[in-house]
């Protein structure tokens, strides 16, 4: 049996702390400026805490400190994500003092900005923009002010229904480890009401090629499905971190075990609802195949 060490990555933790710090400032400042600009698009929202509460974001992308610099390693981080449809992504301007945009399409494309466009995000710590990806597809986006960098969100409508749990995957059932470094997998219990408040505990256990367990951990959400991102790691440690926001959003498993061609079995179980073990066992097994 392989026993993994679950150490938390300080770099990732500082990133999520930036996000949480941003969120905190949003909470504190939104009482001062309750009406902020709302982009006239069906799912695009910019600004106030009220809109965040109406459409809770699942996944945080950071416009990183130094993003305005031409030699910055990234402008948006992560620069490429794969998410199930229905995922709301929130971009935070963590490059304090610099304005940026989140604009759909490639730079200079004739349809740039037609799907979503943040407009100029203010160079202040509370600036964020969110968009819900309701349709499958590859969404390239860029910054109008710094058009030498682009990033991508891939949205997939692939899912698998178990008896009790539905698993949606940002890449479908095949995780290409050469093309994708990360995929968001969402576990939605079909028999547990999702009220946005009642704590739900999920145990996720992963094994490869029907061998021993290579990962197991328990995650808690507040009356929500469990969005769990699997990331192909480049070092030998498994790092678990999240959620992206103060108490909601995606968790992340940065895992060296995602390697080579293999069939992974993902066992998902709801182990507690409001700290009480369910009367009927709520568990399903899913498969995810990897190729390199
Ligand atoms: Cu920019």
From TrEMBL:
Could you identify this protein by its name? Blue (Type 1) copper domain protein
Q: Which residues cross the membrane?
A: none
Q: Which organism is it from?
A: Candidatus Nitrosocosmicus arcticus
